[in-house]
Design a protein that fits this description.
The chain is an alpha/beta fold. The protein has helices at 4-11, 33-41, 62-68, 81-93, 131-139, 159-171, 176-183, 191-198, 205-212, 222-231, 248-260, 295-299, 321-328, 344-352; strands at residues 52-55, 74-78, 99-103, 116-122, 142-153, 234-239, 267-274, 287-290, 334-335, 356-359.
């Protein structure tokens, strides 16, 4: 019997970005293995950790991951051959050749080989028949000290989509064309009309299919999500959906309070590690270095002020001439003990933003 998720993505490979769409390396700063490993382990990644798995890569994710990590072997795994084919073309056209493409199920232990220092499963696990089994499967693929990034649908932010998706299934609407026909009949002020007024997904067939025609999607309250994470032998390291607090306990409290008023972030985005491993090791004689993805943005001759879009939960500091001059000092690693006291405040801001990373040699 055909897997309904595989069939869905064979019909509607997602997302559907133009093959010429490119990303600046600075915009991939939150995908860099070296920076993330140093952020959570306070060391640089050892050789066995220099492998990345994208579990459920879709049509596009291998490209920005390859931009962020040009010298790291990346395995891109997906159920859909069509999605993998488009992902391969996107990387090929942009000169990214460090990706190995595998068609398979992330819960199948034979689909991929070895263990990884960084695993990404963004918007994937909530589509599985057994998300906990999928999370456990990925946990087993982490090296010691390994990091996982995951995104899950939140319960209250997706109420409209889920209501419409269930209604479509009851009505037998199973194609974007049929959905668009119904959209035209939406009465002003109706739930469907309100959704259409704000939903970017309805602009394309693949967007409609992913948001409203998906055969399986699960949403979570924060406590349900945390319970599943714990059962998988994992723990949160950092939440990075927009507005998230840097302290994990504070963010969980904030989310629990939001849910009392039936509110939640659009999605939960977080980094995970094994719960029996102490990732944040205390070190002495530590060094500070610039996130490798930011080197071109910092060293290029530019005038005026720019801002890199937020990727770790809050707005980034601006990059003007003064800020770029400050960050250029860290292109080569600098000993923390050599820093002047007046620089400590700026260093803290850039460490929080993942622009600077601290590690022990």
């Amino acid at each position: 019997m055909a897997d309904p998720i595989q069939t869905h993505y064979q019909m509607y490979p997602y997302p559907h970005y133009p093959l010429i769409a490119s990303v600046r390396r600075c915009d991939t700063y939150a995908l860099n293995l070296c920076a993330l490993w140093a952020r959570f382990n306070r060391t640089l990644p050892p050789p066995e950790a220099k492998k990345i798995l994208i579990a459920g890569c879709g049509t596009f994710a291998p490209y920005p991951w390859a931009v962020a990590n040009p010298d790291v072997p990346i395995t891109a795994l997906d159920l859909s051959e069509r999605s993998l084919r488009r992902a391969r073309w996107h990387c090929f056209l942009h000169g990214r050749f460090n990706v190995d493409y595998r068609c398979g199920d992330l819960t199948d232990h034979t689909a991929i080989d070895g263990a990884f220092g960084l695993i990404d499963s963004f918007g994937v696990l909530h589509h599985l028949a057994d998300p906990l089994s999928g999370l456990k499967s990925l946990e087993r693929r982490l090296v010691t000290g390994g990091i996982m990034r995951a995104m899950f649908y939140s319960r209250y932010a997706r109420r409209e989509e889920e209501s419409i998706r269930r209604a479509f299934r009851l009505l037998g609407i199973d194609s974007p064309r049929a959905a668009r026909s119904l959209f035209k009949k939406a009465r002003a002020g109706s739930r469907l009309a309100r959704y259409l007024a704000v939903a970017d997904e309805v602009a394309s067939d693949v967007g409609i299919a992913d948001a409203l025609l998906h055969p399986r999607a699960r949403t979570y309250r924060i406590n349900e999500l945390l319970e599943m994470i714990e059962k998988a032998g994992l723990r949160p390291l950092l939440f990075t959906h927009y507005g998230a607090r840097e302290d994990v306990s504070e963010e969980i409290d904030r989310l629990q309070n939001l849910e009392k008023t039936h509110m939640s972030p659009g999605n939960y985005i977080l980094y995970l590690a094994r719960k029996n491993e102490a990732n944040e090791k205390k070190t002495s004689g530590s060094m500070l270095m610039l996130n490798p993805c930011l080197i071109p943005a910092v060293t290029a001759l530019k005038f005026g002020t720019s801002r890199i879009p937020a990727r770790v939960g809050y707005d980034n500091p601006p990059l003007g001439c003064r800020e770029r001059s400050f960050l250029r000092a860290f292109v080569s690693p600098v000993s923390c003990s050599a820093l002047a006291e007046e620089r400590a405040e700026m260093v803290a801001v850039y460490k929080r933003a993942l622009f600077l990373v601290e590690y022990s040699p």
